[in-house]
Fold each of these.
Amino acid sequence: MIDDSVRAFASGAPKVKIMGVEVKSVYLEQPLQEKLKELNAEFEKLSDKRMRIKNEIEAYDAQVEFAKGFARASATTAPAEVTKRKIEPQELRDMAAFVRETIKEATAEKLKLQASERELLRKIAVVQSQMNELSRQRSTVSKQILVTLVSEQAMKVKCSVTYLVPAASWEPAYDVRYLTEVNQVELVYYGVVAQRTGEDWNNVELELSTATPTTSVSMPDFQPTVVYPRGASVVGETYPQPSPQTPYRLRKEVSKIMEENKEESEGQQEAMKHDFLAVGGALTAGVTQHLTSVSFKHPKPETIPCDGRPHKSVITIERFATKIEYVTTPALSEFVYLRASLTNTSSYPILPGEMSTYVGSSFIGKAIMKAVSPNENFQLYFGNDKDLKVERKVVQMQEEGPTMFRSSRKLTKSFRITLQNFKAQDVTVTVIDSIPVSWTEMVKVTMVDCKPKVGEQDEMGKLTWVVKLAARGKEEINFKYDIEHPQSQILNLENWSAPRLKQQMEQMKK
């Protein structure tokens, strides 16, 4: 508990006053020793059980060895017995059956016991780990809160306290499913809570707030290709700093949402209690809008042990209308991806978090959901489609020196992108590629040829075609560009991020 965060509230009569709030730390050895005693008893109980199992395994091993010894002895003495007396075939069959059944039954029982022993070893390891953790702790610290109340007369007073605790956190997680039959995307919004506050939360009212949130199936992001003279002054690449909203980062403090909630009207608090929704058999959280945040109150009490492990529960379920399209960046990936374009039509933000994607009932893979505000457009990827193929080849790369009519050097590059559709229906594919970008007049980049004509080209050199592919059809895109530069210069050809290129261009303009 953070001592300075303690707030006391008294209600019941207007003349009662809170004169003071004091927090004391109490060091308790007894609860720790009692817990260690319980764990030690459990450890001994499991160890004794394992010893009994080991003894039974040894007994079955002895039984197998006896049967094998009997078989070896019978094989040695049987010929001599045959010469002395007549041995019936049934007698030999009975002896063989005895050996076979004995070994079979003993081996089967031994395998069962070994499986039980493995399970016991796992339980023993858990108990041992808990004992080691407690042994490292010298004492258990408990907090006492003393609230001093003063009133002019005897009365019943309801007193409550609020406080903040460190080492408690929550983060969002999602199941995202493309429902092909209705052309919608279903988003299941989970709250994953973990806490190491020093005490278990048993049957607590859980409210999650967005006020202070502390292997991919997606297509690679486009990066412009930049050409510039070697030795030129260039800006460095900038990388985004970890955000407080980054998933799976353990928050060190709890937000001030409790203080904000005290300022909310009783009417808003009551309105939240009935705003529950049952969707697909799941009882979802009530949603309350605050001035700058949203909180989700779980419809039933939750129990969160003080073990630091994640505990997952449904917050809400939403469905969004979507536009589905196929996209590809063949210079970066050899696949054609299925992309959904959506709008967050809910009244609350979608926070960053881990996302599991599905098409119907088929699991596609894992990805990271980015932050999406209400009414904001966003895109989701549902993996690549194996029935669509794309291939990008360098058809020509030729460098020429100065000529009678040109003093500069020229590099010519041409590419061919081949698209194939193995589906039984027509599809439309958006193809993204690029040509180099130059920010200096000494280096010129010219598109020489492009078939079919590029649909869109931006200042970052990004090229976009929208290609209609007939069922089991095939299409090609061919484009060629020239790079001219002074003979004395050696060029660098690199892939930059769009922000870095924009910053470089702004710097050159200055």
Amino acid sequence: MSFKDFQKFLDSTDSKLDIKRDIYPKMKEIIFHSTTAVTSKINRNDRQFCYLVLGYDFMIDVSHNVVLIEINKNTGLAESSPIINMIMPRMMDDSLRLTIDDLFEPAYINNSATNYKSPYPVTDYSDYENMWEFMHKL
């Protein structure tokens, strides 16, 4: 379910919860703490210029707590749903821009990110936004 669809569901139940204000920051915090906890294990050989795409599965309980279900290092890149079909090409493009562009075009970090229009549009996200940028800043 997309964030937009989940927000519509919450609104239909008269919930005062806002995904971007109440749920997404908790997800980011969980991701930050989990990656920080295993940083030394992810790249044991201290290899330069490598990265790992992780898949995080979350659940929102009846009390609206964000619960981490699992983290996958072998993320399902198969196009298994309309949402995944839309997000996957963008995820790969954005993750490569954060790694390859950082290595070969350091200007990306300074300013060129705002000049790049993704050829893979995702509903409710700007084509000029890197959807995974916050992870790059960890």
Amino acid sequence: MAKTNARANKKQFTFLLVAIVVVGAAALGWVATRPKGGGEAIDPNMKPGTAKGFLMGSPDAPVKIVEFADFECPACGQFATLTEPDVRERLIKTGQVSIQFYVFPLPMHQNTWPASNAAYCAAEQGKFWEMHDRLFYTQDLWNTQATTSPDKKMKGYAKDIGLDEDKFGDCFDSKKSYPDIKASGIEAEARGVNETPTFIIGGKKYPGMIGYDQFKKLVDDELAKLPKADSGKQAK
């Protein structure tokens, strides 16, 4: 009798274990496509479009930097508001550097897809960087903790930066940029990026927030590798 009970208990345990694995796998699949904050679920079967980088600076700049960032990422916001103003003024405007910006929406962020969508729709009217700045400088007003309905915020920002509101609204509501946003994330993963922000400078990845002094040193190191005729103006 004891042996029979033991076998029955073992079968019951095995059944429960299998059930837990199946449920767990289903839960993981749901988590992979839905932000932890309960935001918009993204169709995992959506076909990717084209990964688009948004350029700041001269395409002929001697040092070309690629940035992968998430609009809801706090460290990305710190870079955009604390370091990037100096980078623009002292490195980009002087022709030494260009930055190619790719969105990399992370699954733990609730409103990152709508924010990326707003930036793409602003780009259609030639104002990607204006929306980029507005999103990062007001990050605490629309992020996960602030709101679960970011659409009104995004449309308000479109008005603030002088976009055609009807065109922006049509673009934003259609979500036609979502396949390209997905493709941008795939591009990040293909390059081995798993953290935001991540900067690719001289073929090397530098993850995390970078202060201006460190950023300038990395640029200077790349300029030093170039022939003097190609290095452009030296950083001041």
Amino acid sequence: MYVLETNEDLKFERLLGNPLLEGILAALAQIDELKKSARDYYFQVMLCKYPCPVCGGRLRMNGPSRCTCKCGMSLDPTVEFQPCPECGGKLALKYFHYACARCQKVVPSRFLFDERAFSAQYFCQKMAECRERKQRRLEEMRCWLATSRSDALPLDGGLSLESVSGLAVALDEFIGAAGSVSLADFLIFDSFYMEDYRRVILAGLDECRLFSRIPPLCEDSRRDRARRFTTLVFMQHECEVDLIQHGNDFWVMRHEADAQGC
């Protein structure tokens, strides 16, 4: 069996063959160990003054803004121990950040080292709601199609335009109204490359972004808006992004799989 190597693999091999970079893998491993040690020390310092609220034992971090105790207690230290610096209110985890439940001010968590806040429960709930809406729309479409079927068309003999009063005249008027159309009218040199829009959209999705804030690629604002929307529809179908209505605009965010892998 032969495995085709990608350009990235070949570039990486050439880099490793450079004598100046022979020790790069060992250096990267040491950097990872140093980062891990710094993270562990940082959280030991941060949690040393916060005992377990159940048994008073020592808390240890085991995930992004999540710590546990030997007694089995698991809690979010940002919500439990970090108040709002403005009003002293309790923080709450939103979909990508923490915010004060009282004044709604966004507050950075002190219990995140090199991670991002992420509410899996929020996205699971939104995905469940999305699936429910899609199922409801599908059922509504099925009911509409079932009631919109045309009556049966009996074909006792050959088809004749004269059998429908006025049809021949209407067809003649329709064809005559069209006039002559040049082939040049159908040639549009301003081509639409969806992949260009896809790359721009994904490059700017480090956080949620409004549809109206996505940079344009076309001077014609109406045409560019239609192309951006068309690209997002295909990207949502391919489970690359999620779209959430926001007034006359909507939020665009990277798709995150839920517990069912959807």
